[in-house]
Amino acid sequence: MRSVFGFVALALLAACAPRSEPFRTAPLPKDPGYLSAVPAGDTAFDNEDLAHLFVQLTHGLETGEYRQNLQRFEGPVNVGMTGPGSTDYQKFLRRFLAEIRKQAGVDISVGAPPHDLLIQMVPGEELLPRTTAQCFVIFAQPTWEEFKANPSRYEPLVVDASGPQQKIGIMIPDTIEPFKVRECLLEEIPQALGPANDLYGLANTIFNDDDAHTWPTKLDYLMLEVLYDERLESGLSQAETLTLAQAVLDDVNPEGVGAPKLPPVQQDAFLDWRGSLHRLSVDGEPIVLQNVRKAAAEARRKAPFSAYDCTGATILAIVTGNATTRDADKLLEEAIKTCKRAHGIEDVRVAQLRLIKALRHLGGERYRRAREQAQAVLPVFLAHGLEDEIADAKITIVRASAGLRDPNWRNQLPDATAWSAFVFGDDHTVTETLRE
Q1: pLDDT at 10 over 50
Q2: Using CA atoms, how far apart are residues 391 and 94, in angstroms rounded to an integer?
Q3: With CB atoms 3.0 to 4.6 Å apart as the test, which of 88, 182, 219, 273 could cross-link to 25 if both were Cys?
Q4: d(CA 324, CA 84)
């Protein structure tokens, strides 16, 4: 998750030694507009299309295979979180589960063992070298030692499971930054509840790995509401799921009756493309610019100005900017144009690209432009709760103001430092550098 914009996080400006313990956490700074646009998006799409989407999300798998039977928890979902540093996230976890109950009507809460859903913070220095995933769901609850001894026994995606979900686990490395831990909780808990697929062509959702939304959207909560409606149950076939999902949607989503069609997702046409994209976006692996250009060209050819085209153009602009300055600004402008056409001028993906533009201005000592761009997109990041982008934008504003010799930059520094502590960690190099 969050693989694309990991290339440009300001945290990369300061190298960090490998960690063997969790970061120190810090409180959430108060900021007007924070989470004001959450949940984002809308559900005013044709209910028949949404029913087909529901089947794709609940029966489909990222590999392109399909589960024969619907899976979900039957009864209340009891959640626990253990491991080094886990107590620091209990308040956030309870708040998020309360939001799931409110928005989707799922009976889920933190409780005492035994747990239906167990979130484990495990040794990051041991886990991270073993996987390209930041965190993941497994259909069991092994201890870390059991998992480490035989990881192939705990495949994260189970194709032939037929009964209800019994014991589900989520593993999160304990050495990643606090914002990444919270992102893992925000994405993996909804997926552990049943939707196992990710669809790049779906816009306003967390079930697509395109680095836009971190908090579930209105569409995500609607999918969970349908999944946990009393008319559905584990074991339903795809055809049964489709029929019942449409009936539920007509009841709980009246705005979808006679509404516009959902834009086509085109998952099958982009299955190989998506797999290639995952390999290209893994931190630490060499990036071959030729392959990135090929992926971007394929997306433009198959689905011009679509969500796929936006993603392809964005990765091309980022990788080109990292590898060379030649054509980087031109490609960045092209990505902004493509994403505006795909998602709209106010979309978070456009704001993320404009932040990259601000960082390029900052690197080129074009301080006024850097500050203007960062100030323009900061409200978008605050409204959608995109924590690392909030911190990056605030740090950019401070650095640009200092470069302009604006005497107000010292007044801005405490707020940027507080956000850095909350997002990256109180003892993170970026935070300590700001304090210095």
Answers
A1: no
A2: 24
A3: 88
A4: 40
pTM tops 0.90, yes or no = yes
Cβ within 8 Å of residue 415, ≥6 positions away: 29, 31, 394
22 token code pair: 């969790």
Per-residue burial over 122-161, b = 16 or more CB atoms within 10 Å of its CB, e = otherwise? bbbeebbeeeebbbbbbbebbebeebeeeeeebebbbeeb
DSSP, residue by residue, 75-143: S-EEEEEESTTGGGGHHHHHHHHHHHHHHH---EEE-SSS-SEEEEEE-HHHHGGG-S-SSEEESS---
Q: Name the DSSP class of 173.
A: E
Say what percent of the chain tops pLDDT 90: 72
**pLDDT digit string, tens, across residues 65-89:** 888 899 999 999 999 999 999 999 9
How are beta strands 108-110 and 77-82 bridged, if at all?
Answer: parallel
- φ/ψ of residue 217, rounded to 5: -95, 175
d(CA 173, CA 84): 9
Distinct helix (H) and strand (E) counts, the chain: 16, 5
362 vs 370: CA distance, rounded Å: 5
* Distance from the Cα of residue 256 to its chain's centroid: 26
Measured between alpha carbons, how far is 338 from 408 in angstroms, rounded to an integer? 36
Cα atoms in the Cβ-side hemisphere of radius 13 Å centred on 225: 23
CA dihedral 412, 418, 423, 428 (to 10 degrees): 100
| Cα R_g (the chain), whole angstroms | 21
Quick one: which of 57, 84, 81, 87 has its CA closest to 190?
57
**pLDDT tens figures, 174-222:** 999 999 999 999 999 999 999 988 888 898 999 987 879 999 999 999 9
Q: How far is CA 377 from CA 82, 206, 348, in A?
A: 36, 20, 9
DSSP 3-state of 262:
coil
Q: Structure tokens of 74?
A: 């039957």
- What letters, b where the CB count within 10 A reaches 16 and e where it falls short, cover 165-183? beebbbbbbbbbbbbbbbb
Q: In the numeric block, which tokens belong to residue 72?
A: 């979900």
Q: Please determine, for residue 145, whether its predicted confidence score (pLDDT) is greater than 90.
A: yes
Question: Shortest CA distance to 245 belongs to which of 261, 224, 269?
Answer: 224
Preceding omega of 286 cis (within 30 degrees of 0): no
